[in-house]
Amino acid sequence: MSGKFTLLDNRKEAVLNYIAELCRKDILDMIYNAQSGHPGGSLSVIDILTVIRLTQFREGTDKLVLSKGHAAPALYALLSKLGYIEKDEVQQFRQIESRLEGHLCRNIPGVDVSTGVLGQGLSYGLGFAIAAMQDKTDTRVFVVLGDGECQEGQVSEAAKQAAFLKLHNLTAFIDMNHLQIDGRPDETSVSNISGIFQTYGWSVKHVDGHNFSEMELQIKNAIRNTWRPTAIIANTIKGKGVSEMEDNPSFHGTAPNNEQYKRGMDEIEARLAELRSKYAGIEDDVQSLLASKKPQVSCEVPKVPEGNLVLRTYKPGETWATREAFGHFMEDNASDPNLIGMTADLKKSVCLQQFRDAAGKFDSRIDDSAGMSRSGRFIQFGISEANMSGTAIGLALAGKRPYAATFSAFMPQQMANIHMANYMNLPVTYITTHTGIGVGEDGPTHQVLDAALLKNFHNTRTFEPCNAIECVALLTARFNRVDTVDYFRLTRHKLPVFELPYAITDELIEQGGAVFESGKKPDKIIVASGATVGEALEAQKILKEKHKLAVDVINIISIDAPGLGKWLKTVIPEDKDVFTFQDAYPNCLKDIVSNALCGHEGYQYKGQLRSFGPTYGKSGKQPELYKKFKIDSGSMVEILTAK
Fold first, then answer.
1. Closest among 586, 524, 581 to 556, alpha carbons compared
2. Would you tell me the crossing angle of helices 587-597 and 564-571 to the nearest 10 degrees?
3. Chain-wide mean pLDDT for the chain?
4. What is the mean pLDDT of residues 618-636?
5. pLDDT tens track for 316-329
6. Cβ atoms within 10 A of the Cβ of 623, count?
7. How far apart are CA 256 and CA 284, in angstroms?
8. Which residues are CB-contacts of 11 (< 8 A; sequence separation ≥ 6)?
9. Are 148 and 180 in contact (CB under 8 A)?
10. How many CA atoms within 13 Å lie on the side-chain side of 602?
11. pLDDT at 409 over 60
12. Average pLDDT, stretch 504-521?
């Protein structure tokens, strides 16, 4: 195969080979010392990473996504040679006080994105590549995947989308080492990776994944390709460089014992000695090349410049679904260059049609023969929610503010990506509409009660605005945050507009709620969220006028706000009955209130706590469903006046 290529000169190839062998020593050291890790895939991929990072890659400009994150030792080893990681720290791999986690984490400069769950990295690469085109920069994006990993559905979603969008600044390397945990990939799934990428519309090249010349030339060819993404299928040997690990599935995730470690290190040392003998002064060349690549790269997410966001006004008496208010926010601020709207075949349903018209569509049919010229900020993903939510991560890491919008029922397809965005503290906003039984006639399969799942996410803030005013105020207030995932639950049906007796401030968001007071000491308390707040306020009025009951309505704006528990204790009297109503799993708000009221020194709740809401719903009109599941204003009045 090598005869087809213009090869590197022998000395430069020897220098790259020498660096890769040094990295193999570190890989063995890390995994042996930890007695934990993945030697096979780390050893197979190190030559690929070496040629990417040390030839055409521009530190601080280009992006590298190691999607097969279990091969973290390979990238850590290479970064140690580049000066990002001290030798002593390499020895602490997988130890509790070390930054070097078992799977790749971006808390180290030089690591562009955390990866661990297989199948997500190509979507991250899409986000980086799209952002570069929008900003008209010449950033190149390299994604390294495993061959077994390509069985993941999200890889297929991302590959199709990249080809459709003609992301010519994106190159995917597939480490084709022909092994996964349970054996050969072709024993478990169709493994024609080359044919699949080619069918989708990628330029596909084949190389020897341990031949630096072949790989470097195909990287150059990929850079010259200006109309579609490139997939480089790199045939490798799992465990390359340690003979008893080579092509041995036992070493996918098993550390070597003492004898295996010594034999492996001896083999590597012998090859290094041979290179030193053949190429006098090669170690000086190695240091010269590494020194030329040392960058000063921060792992902080770029900050978005503060702009003058438009805050639409609404009049009491109007009715708007909160999904419509989201659409207004996007449309009104479409001129902001960092605002990105994304959806999965639902632009009208999630109210992004007007944003698309105002901000322009990022579309493969736009002629970009002059280079990076596509700046449209509406991205249509088709029916591929997982890829959309993963692409949002790459966009956020590139300094954008992505809003990924779909139905609440499709939230489960996004959970792995939400988890990773959460772990990386990224300002991604996930918008779900058609929440709860308010969906109506679509029925229980589309009435997913996601709030109960989300309230336990560590660094995700879940918002359920009670009307259009609160929705646009929250979206505006959260735009310039830097380190938190936001998740909005928005309604399909229209909600009444009413004035808020509070402003949406950072302090209020921190406490997570606000009170609509009855005007005097309350007899009872209603706790509501989102769509049930308007119902509760109507019940509050009826209870006051017809039943002479004073009822405070507590609006839970964010079910997972850090200060929610402490604040609730200050606004719920110890001796008053509390009734929770939510268009979600009934124990969601009840658990939040119960946790807030129990176990605090000096506070002993003596009242009764009751909860109302749907488990699974039914097909029917929204008002009928609210009445059936006792979360409408009439049911609230009956419940609070019952003897």
1. 581
2. 80
3. 92
4. 96
5. 999 999 999 999 99
6. 13
7. 31
8. 279, 282, 285
9. yes
10. 3
11. yes
12. 95
pLDDT > 50? residue 3: no
The CA–CA distances, whole Å, from 251 to 66, 196, 276, 512 equal 20, 28, 29, 49
Question: 10: helix, coil or strand?
Answer: helix
The DSSP symbol for 93 reads: T
Tokens of 406: 């779909």
DSSP code, position 55: I
- Which one-letter DSSP state was computed for residue 124? H
Q: What percent of the chain has pLDDT over 90?
A: 78
- What does the pLDDT look like over 435-485, one tens digit per residue? 999 999 998 888 776 666 666 677 789 999 999 999 999 999 999 998 899
Q: Provide long-range contacts, Cβ within 8 A and 24+ apart, for 248-254.
A: 248/40, 249/40, 249/179, 249/180, 249/181, 249/182, 249/183, 251/39, 251/40, 252/38, 252/40, 252/41, 252/179, 252/180, 252/181, 253/37, 253/38, 253/40, 253/70, 253/181, 254/39
Q: Packing angle between helix 212-224 and helix 10-34, nearest 10 degrees?
A: 100
- Say if CB 551 and CB 539 are below 8 A apart: yes
Q: Which tens digit of pLDDT belongs to each residue from 25-51?
A: 999 999 999 999 999 999 999 999 999
Q: Which residues pair with 146 in a beta bridge?
A: 175
Q: Which of 510, 625, 640 is nearest to 567 (CA)?
A: 510
Question: Regarding beta strands 551-556 and 513-516, do their DSSP bridges make them parallel or antiparallel, or are they unpaired?
Answer: antiparallel
Q: pTM of this prediction? A: 0.94
H or E element at residue 159: helix 153-164
| Residues 463, 467, 469: CA angle, nearest 5 degrees | 95
Give me the helix-helix angle, 258-278 and 282-292, nearest 10°.
Answer: 100
If one counts every other C-beta atom within 10 angstroms of the C-beta of residue 303, the result is 10
CB neighbours of 458 closer than 8 A, spacing ≥ 6? 422
Residues 476/309, Cβ–Cβ less than 8 Å? yes
DSSP-based three-state secondary structure for 440:
coil
Is the Cβ–Cβ distance between 41 and 71 less than 8 Å? yes
Would the pLDDT of 370 be above 50?
Answer: no
Q: How would you classify residue 100: left for phi > 0, otherwise alpha for psi between -120 and 50, otherwise beta?
A: beta
Tell me if 489 sits within 8 A of 435, measured CB to CB: yes
Confidence of residue 372 (pLDDT cuts 50, 70, 90): very low
For residues 622 and 437, is the Cβ–Cβ distance under 8 A? yes
Q: Quick one: DSSP state of residue 510?
A: H
* pLDDT tens column, 388-399: 999 999 999 999
> pLDDT by residue (tens digit) across 116-138?
899 999 999 999 999 999 999 99
User: Residue 179 corresponds to which amino acid?
Assistant: L
Could you tell me the two tokens for 96?
């509790």
